[in-house]
Design goal:
The protein is 26% helix and 38% strand. The protein has one helix spanning 49-66; strands at 2-9, 19-25, 28-34, 40-43. A hairpin with a 2-residue loop joins β2 and β3. The protein is globular, with a radius of gyration of 12 Å. InterPro entries: UCP037692.
Length: 69
């Protein structure tokens, strides 16, 4: 379960899509960049390959809810 999910625009001009995101998963903090095409680029160490697919699904749902209302 993802906890403490937060996001902010990557660019001052909020018309340019792209967001910096961070969250906790299983007591580890992760940071990433989320792009308008739905791609996610983890900064530093990302989740394991086993966890990545499920985490990315949850991130997409959260971004749809918060950004693309």
């Amino acid at each position: 379960m993802i906890q403490h999910f937060s996001f902010k625009p990557l660019f001052e001009n909020s018309q340019i899509p792209g967001w910096s995101i961070s969250f906790f998963f299983e007591q580890n903090r992760y940071a990433a960049e989320y792009y308008k095409d739905g791609s996610i680029q983890f900064i530093g160490e990302g989740p394991s390959e086993d966890q990545r697919e499920n985490i990315e699904k949850v991130i997409h749902e959260l971004m749809l809810f918060h950004v693309y209302e």
